[in-house]
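Researcher: Structure prediction, please.
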Amino acid sequence: DTTRQPSEVMEEAHKSTLRRYTPTHGTDHGDPVLFVPPLGSQAACFDLRRGCSLAEHLLTNGRRTYLVDYGEMRLSDRDLGIEFWVSEVVPNAIRKVSQDAGGAPVNLVGWCLGGVIAILTAAAYPELPIKSVAMVASPFDLSKNPMVAPLRTAGKYTGGRVLGGVLKVLGGLPA
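Model: Predicted structure follows.
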């Protein structure tokens, strides 16, 4: 059964839809959880199918569970660097989730690049109501990866806007 867990849209903004999963029990146990998916992958990665769904598991155990969904990535999004998600999308989602949960601190669960975005957000904004960050299959130490060296160099010339900035330096992607 690949039916997704029911959810409702709490807020929509550019490249960001915040969803609150519909609780399956009447009581909430513990602080809320916000899923931070990877860029370029479906946000449904946390809710693959019944019986194999992290969202279902948390809801069944009475956790308030939320998801920030970036929508489909398009060529027109190529100028957005990772800092867009780190400085705007995820912090706004954290604030909204905490507010919705009565001011409770938020547990972040980020998968792959979503984990990197979550940890960078926590590091950049220590005032955010974050209780914990869990990174699933996230590359967190890229210092020994030779493929990342060009990105570090490009960051020096793009004011730190690495992903979007590299595309500008290189003349953009073909249409």
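Model: Strands lie at 7-13, 16-21, 33-36, 47-49, 52-53, 65-69, 106-111, 130-136.
Researcher: Thanks, that helps.
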